[in-house]
Every structure is written in structure tokens, then in C-alpha cells.
Amino acid sequence: MPLLDPGMDLTLRPMRYPDFYERYRAAIRNTWTVEEVDLASDLADLARLTPDELHLVNRLVAFFATGDSIVANNLVLNLYKHVNAPEARLYLSRQLFEEAVHVQFYLTLLDTYLPDQDERARAFAAIEHIPSIRAKAEFCFRWIDSLGSLDELRTAADRRAFLLNLICFAACIEGLFFYGAFAYVYWLRSRGLLNGLASGTNWVFRDESLHMEFAFSVVDTVRAEEPGLFDEAMTARIVRMMEEAVEAELAFARDLCGDGLPGMGAADMRAYLEYVADQRLARLGLPARYGTANPFAFMELQDVQELSNFFERRVSAYQIGVAGSVAFDETF
Length: 332
Known about the structure:
Elements: H1 18-29, H2 42-47, H3 51-79, H4 86-113, H5 117-124, H6 126-129, H7 131-145, H8 156-190, H9 195-225, H10 232-257, H11 266-283, H12 297-300, H13 302-305
Helix pairs in contact: 1-4, 3-4, 3-7, 3-8, 4-9, 7-8, 7-10, 8-9, 8-10, 8-11, 10-11
């Protein structure tokens, strides 16, 4: 039975897709809670930000206020019912839990950063009155709505529509919109600012990377089972979708950065977004669209940062219930 065949397979043995089950188990080992993130240290930093820097932070947290809720809605409305393997649905259930933790983290973030209730309310309503955030939300809603009332994936057209939705949320939203947001956080950290936000973002970054890779593994599986779905028209639509996502995120960058900040401007962010977009296309087996290099050295160092200050702060590479030995002669 192909993965996207209609129905509700409930049989975990024999297991058809053990890789999905292992991804679920790996996600469990990376459990974290919002209470582990200390945001109190950020308050002094917020007080000394310039007006332009404070504008960037306020816009950023306004996007965070609803971003993960949109992803969770699509997961419930469009993904769970169409991926017909119980081991894959285990992973999606775990992903939904993680999206809830992210929503809680950003709720706590806004409560900490924006003590004024009116200002906080405006942040939560950002998709209604901030054009750059509304444009990103409308892009998301358009792809959520693209499946309409499609209850079963019976035709090739139905399955292509589902795959486009899945690829959009993996490559464009979790894989581009969120990565753009993470870049602002790590730019601030590279300047010694908002380490609490960066600490929580380490965990979210790790989760989102795993969500994205699970979605791509679903695409790989469907591609192996039904290669005829991936025709030239499908490829063209994926590339066009990615181009639209880059433009939407670039408009957000112009809003955040204005005339530019030290080491962070709209031109730099364009280059980074194009670089990330090419990475997503490569993961889908498609040619690069932009050929742009990564302009942000602090993003290349992200994995190394997880290993720092181990005894001072719990790092995001930590996994609970780890068995086996640890060698310190590995190349990191």
C-alpha cells in the first residue's frame, strides 16, 4: 500500500516504514520544556538596544506570536489524515506536541519582552495590521487552503496538491521563514545580546530541523513509490513557490532592518535567503535557483555554539535518556 493511499492503516507490525518510527523515538529523546529557558537575563539587554534594534526585536517576536500556530493548524488539517502509516502518524503527533511547546515558548517570550498589555495585544494581532507579517501569513493560508475539502488522495492531481502543501510547509515556512527568523536571533547573540532568546531558539531550531527532515523523508518515500508524480510541471511549481517565499521573507527583512544595522541588512538577508532556498531545492533533488553564498558566518557556527558553556547552560544538543559512551576526540 503506497503511503498516500486513502484509508487509516492501524497496524504497526509488520512495520512498513521503520525510519519514521526511529524519527519519532529521536524526537522523544530531545524533549525540553519552556521552564528550562531563562529569559530574565534579556531584560537588561532590551533596555540598552537602539531604537532600530528594538524595532527589529519587536517585529521578530510579533512574527513568532503566530508562526508555529499556523504550522500546527496545517499539520492537523492537512497532513495527519493523508499520511497513511501509523509510524508516520506517531511522528506527526510528536511534532504537534513540539509545536505546542514552541507556542508556549513564544507566549512566555512576549509576556517577558512586552509587559505593556496593549503592546502585547498588538503583537499577537500582527497578521492583521503589520503588512510584512500579513503577507507571510497570507502565503501560508493560501497553501493551507490549497487542499480545500480534499478528504482523500485518489488521483495524481490530488497527490501532487498534497505534496506541494507538504513541501511548502517544510521548505518555505519551517525551512525558510523560520530560518530567516533564527538568523536575526543568532545575529543578536553574535553581538552578546539576548542570550536567553538564543538559548530557547537553539531548541526550536533543532526541532524545526527535524520536522523539515521528516517531511522531506515523506517526499522521498512518495517519490520512490510513485515517481510519475514528479513531472516538469510539479518541479516548476516548487521553484515558483520557493521564489515567492523568498520575496515574502525579503519584504519582512526590509521591514525589520530598515536602512541596515551593523552586520545585518536587507541585502545580506536576501543573500542568506537565496542560499537557504538553494539548500532546500537541493534536498528535493532540484537544481540551485540562485547560486548565492551564505553571508552570515554566525550561522555557519551555529552547531559549534551548541557545545559552548556546557557547565553554565544546558545546551540544545543534549538528549534525555542517552545510552552509550561519549568520545571527546571527535571532529566537531
